[in-house]
Amino acid sequence: MRKTSLAAACALTLAAACSSNGGGNSTAKLASAADSMAYIIGMNVGLNLLHMDSTLHPEAVAAGVRDVLRGEPRLSLDEARTYYLRQITFEEPARIRAYEEEFLEEIRQSNRSYARTKSGLTYTIEEIGNEKLTPTNSRDTVLLRYVLRDASGTQLYSSYDRGDTLRSAAGDLLPGVEESLRLIGEGGKMEAWVPSAEAYGTIGDKTLGVAPNATLFFELELVGVEKYNARRGGGR
User: What is the DSSP string of 210-228?
Assistant: First the structure.
């Protein structure tokens, strides 16, 4: 039963890969059918690892598989679990934060029009807008147009291309976007680099194509502001 399930899992992964690569025409040229199946299982593992982390050293992965199959793993399961959890919980996030901090500081230093806030938000204001109409309350409603890009410059979303204007309570926006809009008034425009912790964090957003721990670049236009107190009859 385990062999059948494993073969089925491999078939699904490899079928998806083949469909995206045109199917392929080569045949396996290994010593036996058993070796061919083993190689295919290795391909399946490799494809899954590429989706997880393309920086993993294949030699180390192969050594781990080989040692377990030989019954001679270099770490106990408890040691492996402790080390893995420490890495993903503390050390890896710290490494990512340090890289992001260096990246954003480099942007600020290379372009003196950019400033930074305590959260790490790195921004430049193109048009300040009407400072009397700034979203200062999380319950203020904003009308917003924006372009979203990842750190490589790839466009992930554009409300201009879609002909949309987002209407939202300020507090329902990403923390980094809400903080950005507090710096400009109605009619204002700005560019902002938003740290991952102030955007989609360690989860990312598959729908938008935002990777986990991604630093994002926004072009923001604050089209309108409706003050919460004004809607309650307190005046603008």
Answer: BPTT--EEEEEEEEEEE-H
- Which tokens is 69 given? 């199959």
The residues, ordered by sequence, that sit 6+ positions from 131 with a Cβ below 8 Å of its Cβ are 185
In the block, residue with structure tokens 């700005």: 190
Q: In terms of C-beta density within 10 A (0-12 exposed, 13-18 middle, 19 or more buried), how is residue 124 classed?
A: middle
pTM: 0.66
**Complete domains list, the chain, with CATH:** 2-70 (no CATH), 107-231 (3.10.50.40)
> Are 185 and 130 a contacting pair, CB within 8 Å?
yes
The listed range with the strongest mean pLDDT (93-102, 127-136, 223-232) is 127-136
Give CA angle at 108 (144, 147), nearest 5°: 25
